[in-house]
Amino acid sequence: MKMQYYSASGYEKLRRMGLKLPAERMVRRWVAETEVNVGFCEHVFAALKQAMLDIPPEERCCALKWDEMSLMEREEYDVKTDVIEGFEDLGPLGRTERRANHAFVFCLNGLHAGNQWRTMLAYFLPCNNVSGSDIVRLVRQCIGKISEAGADLKMTVCDQGTSNGKAYSELGVSEDRPHFFHEGKKIIALFDFPHAVKNVLGLFRKWGKISAADKVVAYSDFTNTFRSDLGCATSNLLGHITEAHMWPNAFERMNVSRAFQVFSKRFASAMELARHSRAVRSETIPEIARFCRSMDKIIDACNSSSIFNENPAKRPLSEENPQVEQILVEFLSWAPDMKVCAKGRWKRPASFAGMVQTVRGILMLYRQLREQFPGFKLCTALCNQDSVEQLFSRFRGRGGSNPNPTCRMYLKNISERFQQFAFYNP
Questions:
Q1: Is the pLDDT of residue 96 over 80?
Q2: Which residues of 37-75 are buried (b: 16+ CB within 10 A; e: fewer)?
């Protein structure tokens, strides 16, 4: 079934080559046998409970993540269930007559670097966005079910959307207090770090000036260096940088990798070279070069995905890699004072506070895990939303490019996903 899910044409080609596989229609019948209703999927929690019995306690530590993707508004009749699909449905919170245009998903990820398991727990079909109070109610219900399944939930992760910010505020989470309590248990609450970096660059680009570590840096140094390197025949340090990095449109602003490439030590070296060669005359280049190198370090430290890496900053948080913890501590020494100059006034946007909250929460999480399980290795990439984004990209890629599926298409993909990947390793 996994082969047929990833490529129906490849599956059929293997059958024509003589490999004895069930017909595609039979596979679809097997998938249809599993009824996946909107809300919490009980058979997934049953599979999770069984899986938790076979792994040691340190590998049961996990993170709850949620996100939304847009859907096409369209009503379709399901003959099997005698239900018109396409209306808002929040599972235990009820169904309304409004058209659903989003899908809201809960996923669970293991935090141990040696066993990065993941599973999808629930989905809902809201109209526009789920409100902050509804998110709190759903999150608390989900945490209860996770605890009953035997998993050890340590943290939650979401993006910095308005509803998520309100939900965290209702839970008592703040920049200085990146956690909340559920039935006496402490849960670390984080925002998605890559999206926070993207938002910081967006505000920097919009307002032009940022104050960091008591130094004012200007975005014009980025653009002037880019123009200088573009017309220089002897330097190609910024050959990977395009106009989409400097002056992106609304769609290009959503690209996280471009933000990482701008806040990089390579760009810092290009700015220093341009100043040394007098191609760019700016007194703030030394400060912005230091700012870029600091951001490059924290980006690497918050995106480690494997136990072994040539870059010391991209190794997991562990007793073997004290330099990673030191990078997080150094970031927290100057980042809480970071501000942006908006319309002549220095302000501290929520994106800046969210990034500090996330780094502080990662550090708190690691120290808690290290105390509970000596020798624990935490890959910090498991503390972001990459797994949920990858899940959405697979949904959009079913049947070719389908960026906005209907509710019925989405339900079909969900059924196939639950049938084949109730509990799996990436």
A1: yes
A2: ebbbbeebbebbbebbeeeeebbbbbbbbbbbbebbebe
